[in-house]
Amino acid sequence: MDFELCLDKTKTTTKLQSSMYGEQGAFPIVSQEKELISGYWDNENDVFKHETPIVIFGDHTQVVKYIDFDFVIGADGVKILAPKSFLNPKYFYYWVMSVHIPSHGYARHYRYLKEHQVPVPPLSEQQRIVSLLDAEFAKIDTLKANAERNLQNAKDLFQAALKEELRPKEGWKSAKLSDVVKVINGRAYSKEELLPKGKYRVLRVGNFFTNDSWYYSDLELDEDKYCDSGDLLYAWSASFGPKIWDGEKVIYHYHIWKMLPSMELDKDYLYYWLQSYQLTSQVMSRLHGTTMVHITKGIMEATTIQYPSNIDQQRISKTLDTLNEKCKTLQTNYEKTIVLCDDLKQALLRKAFNGEI
Predict the structure, then answer these.
(1) What is the pLDDT of residue 258?
(2) Confidence bin at 12 (pLDDT 50/70/90)
(3) CB 245 within 8 A of CB 229
């Protein structure tokens, strides 16, 4: 049946902008974002009330939600789909989830959804499908929740070991970072200087941890504005963290620093210290509790680093290398399980709406 013939018309209430969301309130706010509840609101006049469950479709995000409670509509892009009485609302929710629409970025996607035909079997068959999917999805959700918990445990395990290994011991030295590490700014680029092809790739924060969306430059710069394989870098804006570069010679962007340790510091030790509680606790205290938008060079250079002898630094680095590899293997396995759970759901949905179950 034509998609729009399956829906009752609804009269929407005020849509709140995200800047208006509260952390507490009498009524939940539902938006097109991933989380079921995005915030709270107190004005009852803005509440969208409905007698039967409805489906939310995120026009920009393609997030699909089954809503069986009254709520306030959050921001733009929320499409409220109220299925007619010949459709089981949960059945319709599962069908919307099953529809594959290629992502068009932040463009609107509802126009593609409404091009699809909705299968409308008898209500008894709809309920059978819902009951089957509810049961199977509950099992998958349990598996996914366990994998997500174990994934976090693996991350926490490494962070706990990192904190303990870098806890200052008797005989360790202490220095301002600027006294033992040279922090070199990258270079900012105009649009005209970033090319689709060129002599050097430009390493930006957007591809600091990935290998796509590269820009290039033909500029010949001072040698300290390039990084080679083995150089220690730190992204201080958006994607925080260190990386030991292992690729070809590139130009690094303004939002990345090159970190050159003195002879007193082992590079691998510094790499681990840059992702440790010992650094983040100092940075957060200097930001006075404000939201961390970026770390300034002044804040970074003013931090205090504690370190043992070079031999002990190397021993600590090797210990953390071993544990890091084990934890990464665990994380990879758990991440694969999480992806598999999502794939299993889509496979079940395809079978359900192809009449295979």
Answers:
(1) 96
(2) confident
(3) yes
Counting other chains too, the contacts that 97-105 makes at CB distance below 8 Å and 24 or more residues apart are 97/64, 97/345, 97/349, 98/346, 98/349, 98/350, 98/352, 98/353, 101/62, 103/62
- Residue 133 corresponds to which tokens in the numbers above? 């999917």
Place of tokens 């680093």: 305
Lowest average pLDDT, out of 13-17, 265-269, 309-313, goes to 13-17
pLDDT in tens, 231-249: 999 998 766 789 999 989 9
Cβ(341)–Cβ(144) under 8 Å? yes
Can you tell me the distance from the alpha carbon of 301 to that of 150, in angstroms, rounded to the nearest whole number? 35
Q: Provide the CA 307 distance to its chain's centre, in angstroms.
A: 33
Question: What whole-number distance in Å separates Cα of residue 90 and Cα of residue 127?
Answer: 8
pLDDT digits (tens, 9 = 90+) for 167-185: 999 999 999 999 999 999 9
- Give strand ranges (E) for the chain: 7-8, 15-16, 27-30, 39-41, 47-48, 54-58, 64-67, 71-74, 78-83, 173-176, 181-185, 200-203, 215-217, 226-227, 232-235, 241-244, 250-252, 256-261, 304-307
Residue 113 to residue 3: CA distance in whole angstroms: 8
Per-residue confidence (pLDDT) for residue 293, from 0 to 100:
58
Smallest Cα–Cα separation from 252: which of 197, 184, 187?
187
